[in-house]
Amino acid sequence: MRTAKILYKDEEAGVLTQHDDGSFTFRYHDTWMANSNKPGISLTLPKIEQEFNSKFLFPFFYNMLPEGSNKQAVCKLNRIDQDDYFGLLMTAAKHDAIGAVRVVKTEKP
User: pTM for the complete prediction?
Assistant: First the structure.
């Protein structure tokens, strides 16, 4: 199982988890859900539900991934398998993502 913090404008909005079976869960934090001024991170992950489940990486996050030669370069330089979308997401969307959302790997204690 791997997890990443999902930051919206540098505030932690929730957690994205890849389970051992390859499925994914995105969960908004309780404090994010309780604050009516905090928006949903995307139209496909609205704040009307606290937890979302999918057999595949959610399209919102998949569309944050680099493509083509950029994907090849990132994978080669970081030694990431090209089919490891979660690993690629945590690397590519950590610092410089388009939009307000960033993905930061959760460090194991």
Answer: 0.90
